[in-house]
């Protein structure tokens, strides 16, 4: 049942994210007077639709995206323009003609191409920005409303020994843990260590790490009373791994305190910071997207293992959700939180990916609007005639090429996520 719910959460979450992305385009377009003839979630055959006012709202069979049809996306050919010959020229002319045919008589002023450059930017950025807002809201719920499991200064368990093996299991001959020898008990709350007051687990860990191995005092609250314990930290070897894979072994003080955990509600600023961190990481991932896709192909059709940070399709995201839902040790609230953060990451990916400055992605149309605005600004400064709208129909060959590449990439990732999925463990 948990697995079924996980799949439904991902499917519904993706559909809602897509639907709200398109709302982000549609609302400002309508506010600026553009006629929006269609609002569709999905592609392919229409499963359901209703017409309200001048807009048809519908749901299509393939939940791989969505669109709003903004009437008059492409401006007519510039005056004196000579049609290009060949396939590219025919493609550009067909796009202009289809755009012109959508404009109803007497509503020429409501065409998208007639908007000012800033308004075009607002309309085209509305979708990606909506995804970023969704990501922040989901992260806010996960971190602020639900909270993060945080170690506290209340003792959870007291180890019986100073383990000498890497697995941490006590064996015959292992020395007694300093905390156990000092009389520390589960449920005690540490107030100070070595004379330094502590109010968080990080402060306690830092005090132990810098306190050395000489005998010292440990003050705890037990049954409402302060109790002072004498403790002599032992030495234990610890290993740290650097970013380049270098492993360093050091000797550190060891007392033997394992904390309890409590959910700590984070501030909205923390949620904003985490959203920003995920966004910057996603930008780096998208910048390496061609390399990442090649790596997926090599892992899928070759002998190379698929990395844990591999790019995934929606199918892969669904499998991750299933893994999260099936985690035996996770509580229900922890699973809900993981789902929220997974959907937040997906929305960040939609935000960043759609800003790639190539049509048919939103970023390509933003670049066209910025180019148009720049031309008009230069003309105004130089007191030249005002240029017409940017001839974005000339980018149709690029749009078709991008559509083909995205289709191939999508099919490859879906296949890879079926036969060689990313494993969480």
From TrEMBL:
<keyword id="KW-0378">Hydrolase</keyword>
<feature type="transmembrane region" description="Helical">
    <location>
        <begin position="398"/>
        <end position="416"/>
    </location>
</feature>
<feature type="transmembrane region" description="Helical">
    <location>
        <begin position="338"/>
        <end position="356"/>
    </location>
</feature>
<keyword id="KW-1133">Transmembrane helix</keyword>
<keyword id="KW-0862">Zinc</keyword>
<dbReference type="GO" id="GO:0016020">
    <property type="term" value="C:membrane"/>
</dbReference>
<dbReference type="InterPro" id="IPR041489">
    <property type="entry name" value="PDZ_6"/>
</dbReference>
<feature type="domain" description="PDZ">
    <location>
        <begin position="172"/>
        <end position="222"/>
    </location>
</feature>
<protein>
    <submittedName>
        <fullName>Zinc metalloprotease</fullName>
        <ecNumber>3.4.24.-</ecNumber>
    </submittedName>
</protein>
<dbReference type="InterPro" id="IPR004387">
    <property type="entry name" value="Pept_M50_Zn"/>
</dbReference>
<keyword id="KW-0812">Transmembrane</keyword>
<keyword id="KW-0472">Membrane</keyword>
<comment type="similarity">
    <text>Belongs to the peptidase M50B family.</text>
</comment>
<keyword id="KW-0645">Protease</keyword>
<dbReference type="InterPro" id="IPR008915">
    <property type="entry name" value="Peptidase_M50"/>
</dbReference>
<dbReference type="Pfam" id="PF02163">
    <property type="entry name" value="Peptidase_M50"/>
</dbReference>
<dbReference type="Pfam" id="PF17820">
    <property type="entry name" value="PDZ_6"/>
</dbReference>
<dbReference type="InterPro" id="IPR036034">
    <property type="entry name" value="PDZ_sf"/>
</dbReference>
<feature type="transmembrane region" description="Helical">
    <location>
        <begin position="121"/>
        <end position="143"/>
    </location>
</feature>
<feature type="domain" description="Peptidase M50">
    <location>
        <begin position="11"/>
        <end position="378"/>
    </location>
</feature>
<dbReference type="GO" id="GO:0006508">
    <property type="term" value="P:proteolysis"/>
</dbReference>
<dbReference type="GO" id="GO:0004222">
    <property type="term" value="F:metalloendopeptidase activity"/>
</dbReference>
<keyword id="KW-0482">Metalloprotease</keyword>
């Amino acid at each position: 049942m948990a697995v079924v719910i996980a799949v439904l959460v991902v499917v519904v979450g993706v559909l809602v994210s897509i639907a709200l992305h398109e709302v982000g385009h549609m609302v400002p377009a309508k506010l600026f007077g553009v006629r929006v003839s269609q609002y569709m979630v999905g592609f392919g055959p229409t499963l359901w639709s209703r017409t309200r006012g001048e807009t048809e709202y519908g749901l299509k069979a393939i939940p791989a995206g969505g669109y709003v049809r903004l009437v008059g996306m492409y401006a007519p050919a510039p005056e004196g323009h000579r049609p290009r010959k060949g396939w590219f020229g025919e493609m550009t002319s067909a796009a202009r003609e289809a755009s012109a045919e959508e404009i109803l008589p007497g509503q020429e002023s409501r065409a998208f191409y007639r908007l000012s450059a800033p308004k075009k930017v607002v309309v085209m950025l509305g979708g990606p920005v909506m995804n970023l807002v969704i990501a922040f809201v989901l992260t806010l719920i996960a971190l602020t409303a639900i909270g993060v499991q945080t170690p506290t200064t209340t003792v959870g368990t007291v180890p019986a020994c100073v383990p000498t093996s890497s697995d941490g299991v006590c064996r015959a001959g292992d020395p007694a843990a300093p905390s156990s020898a000092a009389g520390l008990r589960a449920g005690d709350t540490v107030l100070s260590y070595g004379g330094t007051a502590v109010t968080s687990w990080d402060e306690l860990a830092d005090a132990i790490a810098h306190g050395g191995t000489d005998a010292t005092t440990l003050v705890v609250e037990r049954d409402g009373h302060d109790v002072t314990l004498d403790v002599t930290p032992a030495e234990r070897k610890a290993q740290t791994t650097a970013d380049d894979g270098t492993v360093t072994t050091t000797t550190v003080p060891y007392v033997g305190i394992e904390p309890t955990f409590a959910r700590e509600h984070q501030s909205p600023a923390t949620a904003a910071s985490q959203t920003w961190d995920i966004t910057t990481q996603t930008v780096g991932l998208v910048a390496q997207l061609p390399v990442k896709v090649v790596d997926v192909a090599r892992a899928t059709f070759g002998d190379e293992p698929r990395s844990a940070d591999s790019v995934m399709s929606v199918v892969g995201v669904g499998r991750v959700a299933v893994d999260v839902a099936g985690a035996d040790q996770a509580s229900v609230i922890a699973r809900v939180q993981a789902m929220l953060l997974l959907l937040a990451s997906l929305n960040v990916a939609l935000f960043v990916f759609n800003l790639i400055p190539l049509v048919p992605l939103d970023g390509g149309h933003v670049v066209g609007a910025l180019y148009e605005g720049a031309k008009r600004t230069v003309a105004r400064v130089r007191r030249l005639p005002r240029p017409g709208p940017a001839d974005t129909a000339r980018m149709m060959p690029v749009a078709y090429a991008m559509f083909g590449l995205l289709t191939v990439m999508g099919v490859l990732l879906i296949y890879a996520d079926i036969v060689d999925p990313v494993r969480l463990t």
